[in-house]
Amino acid sequence: MEKLLKLKNNFSVKIISGVRGVGKTSLLKNFAEHLRAEGVAEDEIIFVDCSAEDRPKDFQAFYEFVEAQTFEREKFFLLVDDFDRVAEGEKAINALFVSSPAEIYLTVSSEAFAEKISALLPENCDALKIYPLSLVECAKFSSAEDALKNYLHFGGLPGALGADEKFLPKLLRGLTYEIMFDLLEKNSLQRAELFRLLMETLAQNAGKPTTITSMANRLIKFSTALSTFKNYFACGASLFRKIPRFDIKTEKFLPGAEKFYCVDNGILFALNPKADENILIDNAVCVELWRRGCSVSSGKFGAMDITFVAERDGEKFFVQVLPTSGLSAQRATRPLRALPADAKKFLITLKREKKFDGVTNITLRDFLLDAEKIF
Questions:
Q1: What is the predicted pLDDT for the residue at 155?
Q2: Crossing angle for the helix pair 226-235 and 192-204, to the nearest 10 degrees
Q3: CA 204 → CA 42, 156, 177, 279, 299, distances in Å?
Q4: Less Cβ around it within 10 Å: N or C end of the chain?
Q5: DSSP class per residue in 235-269
């Protein structure tokens, strides 16, 4: 809400994205209440629920619907919920932005749909991504002892909070399938089985270098054109976000070495119940970096790897996550210690380790709780 209020009155199109069930509708309704409390007249707040049966379903009908309600108004706020249900809706938003005195706010579940709008109005869009709840928020529903363990395995989907732990795996799987079918419908894709297997394959390969071609080869039994896989891959971007590979020495991104991480640990665990603790930890760290407004890549420094390179407001953070076994803190910090002395370097561990020159050690719990306020 704070971010949304800062963008008010700048006449950009505000796109609020996030998977089904994370609170986009609640945010939009609360924003409408805020406008009313500020004294905005009721007839200047146009709230459109695109999931309702009687709402326009294509761009032409949507444009005409809005125009009919706002004719000759000097200014109005257009708040549209579930906008990715409007076929080719980006065309209507483009026309409204150009021709009407509107402040436009949209919620969407499909990242691909959000990108279409951004592509039409590249200089006039502000994107706000909503993630499932953080450990700080989830800890309110668990004992302090269980909060971190539960968060790593069950994530922060609001629909799963407070459920009995023995029912959580089944509940999470159901919520995950609801999210996937919602994305299929909004992207007009028909092959649910292909999409399910693609998402499960991504979950099994989370944190590993992955390409569309390699995914297609794994699912060769579908005999599907690469272009079709690309469409389903794009649909899945709402669940699995891509991070590029960054060469720290040359300061260039390396093509063909992307990794994928899931927007929520509970979704990842539902799609891959055999996911080991290391990938669950890495995934939780990556999501937290996204949540704090960082762009994230995996790092390469010579022959050495750094788990994440995070950048925010032009400042880089180098983050090494210590695996639960097989690698000592001494070895894990080698690439960090090789970086320039003024670089901001962090080692995330399950428990406190001894100090290394120029490297800040922070426990996973403290990092996820933002206990030390270092990011």
A1: 95
A2: 70
A3: 49, 20, 17, 10, 21
A4: N
A5: HGGGTEEEEEEEETTTTEEEEEEEEEEES-HHHHH
Task: Give mean pLDDT, residues 305-321.
Answer: 95
Q: Cα(254)–Cα(245) distance, rounded to whole angstroms?
A: 5
Residue type, position 35, single letter: L
Q: How far apart are CA 242 and CA 259, in angstroms?
A: 6
Euclidean distance between CA atoms 35 and 29, whole angstroms:
10
For the stretch 135-165, pLDDT in tens is 999 988 777 678 899 999 999 999 998 888 8
Q: Which helix (DSSP H) or strand (DSSP E) does residue 111 occupy? A: helix 111-120
pTM for the structure as a whole: 0.92
**Per-domain boundaries in the chain:** 2-129, 135-369
DSSP 371: T
Tokens standing for 299?
Answer: 């790092």
| CATH 3.40.50.80 corresponds to the domain 2-129 | no
Token pair in block for residue 180: 């996937």
Determine contact, residues 96/78, Cβ cutoff 8 Å: yes
Residue 17 in contact with residue 127, Cβ under 8 Å?
yes
What three-state secondary structure class fits 328?
A: coil
Tokens linked to 272: 């891959």
